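Now for one specimen:
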Amino acid sequence: MILLTRLNGPVFALNPDLVERADSTPDTVITLVDGTKYVVGESLAELVALIRRYRASVVAEAQQMVAQPHEPRREPVPHDGDGDGENSADSANVVQFHRRER
């Protein structure tokens, strides 16, 4: 999310992935993919810089997550096979899903 300022002062957060278009007329008007329009105090150049910075931070964080060692995956609890969906060794609320035959 990026933080933007409405013309009358309040700050709000906007998901930049929903921005379809931004115009400078002379105020900056942001049009979202659903047609919603916002008029903001930031210039068009500032808006573009904020969106670039946001997207760069998302990519950097994703790369950092890949570089970090992963926690070991937990093994699934074995099914007891009696069809009631419960495991006699562990009474946790685990629902066993079975594939439907097509």
Summary: Residues 2-67 form one domain. The chain has a mean pLDDT of 85. The CA atoms of residues 75 and 94 lie 13 Å apart. The chain has one helix and five strands.
